[in-house]
Specification:
The chain is α/β, with parallel strands linked by helices and about 230 residues long. The chain is about 40% helix and about 15% strand. The protein has a single domain, classed as TIM Barrel. It is built from nine helices and eight strands. The longest helix has 20 residues, at about 1-20. The two termini are about 25 Å apart. The structure holds pyridoxal-5'-phosphate (PLP). Pyridoxal-5'-phosphate binds near residues 34 and 218. Pyridoxal-5'-phosphate binds next to strand 8 and helix 9. Pyridoxal 5'-phosphate (PLP)-binding protein, which is involved in PLP homeostasis.
């Protein structure tokens, strides 16, 4: 119990200090606890310590845990992993956010499969910011087109952008993301989310306008299964 509680307190302190350094208010940065590969019991412990937003990357295990934790009715589930098109229904039906949208087909399917719910699905577009050939994410020059597609989708709400920079160039990538976010906001003023920063680089991300840091290891410890 206590180690997750302590880890959460330590991360919040780190976020507070990063905000102070960047001259930002702590209300501008949301903490997403990344619980992939971690048990429902550990998620419950984080919840009992006050955490409400959780990120998952593997749809099958995520849905199992979501179903085990339906009694936590103010929890919010964010899907942050690669999306296979035959898994979109599970995302549309079980999550309130998805951060990793990067294909047209996925947008159409999520919109269609969300249509029987009152609340639209919150969507961030994943950007291939380090321009890696094999990496997921939209090319920078296609962002505007994708943003418009989501604006037109009745059951989706465009919230912003997400990125997972390459290990050694996160500083430059975060800076580029901040510029893209500011630019996209001009044509889509309602967007409010820049999802970037993980356990190892959250201070840098917050210095570059991140509004949501996705933290796994620093809260739940190392993951045993190195699935990524
Ligand atoms: C696993 C994962 C994280 C969390 O990474 P940590 O280094 O454990 O904090 C954040 N974002 C995405 C997309 C992930 O897959």
């Amino acid at each position: 119990m206590t180690h997750i509680k302590n880890n959460l307190a330590a991360i919040k302190l780190q976020i507070t200090q990063a905000c102070e350094l960047a001259n930002r208010s702590i209300d501008e940065v949301c903490l997403l606890a990344v619980s992939k590969t971690k048990s429902a019991d550990l998620i419950q412990q984080a919840y009992d310590s006050g955490q409400r937003a959780f990120g998952e990357s593997y749809i099958q295990e995520a849905v199992e845990k979501i179903q085990q934790l339906t009694h936590l009715n103010d929890i919010s589930w964010h899907f942050i992993g690669p999306i296979q098109s035959n898994k979109t229904r599970l995302i549309a039906e079980n999550f309130s956010w998805v951060h990793s949208v990067d294909r047209e087909k996925i947008i159409y399917r999520l919109n269609e499969q969300r249509s029987n719910q009152d609340i639209p699905l919150n969507v961030c577009l994943q950007v291939n910011i380090s321009d890696e050939k094999a990496k997921s994410g939209i090319n920078v020059n296609e962002l505007e087109r994708y943003a418009s597609l989501i604006e037109q989708a009745k059951h989706l709400t465009l919230r912003g952008l997400m990125a997972i920079p390459k290990k050694n160039d996160s500083s430059e990538s975060f800076h580029k993301m901040a510029e893209l976010f500011t630019k996209l906001k001009l044509s889509h003023p309602s967007i409010d989310t820049l999802s970037m920063g993980m356990s190892g680089d959250l201070t840098e991300a917050i210095a570059n306008h991140s509004t949501m840091v996705r933290i796994g290891t620093a809260i739940f410890g190392e993951r045993e299964i190195a699935k990524e």
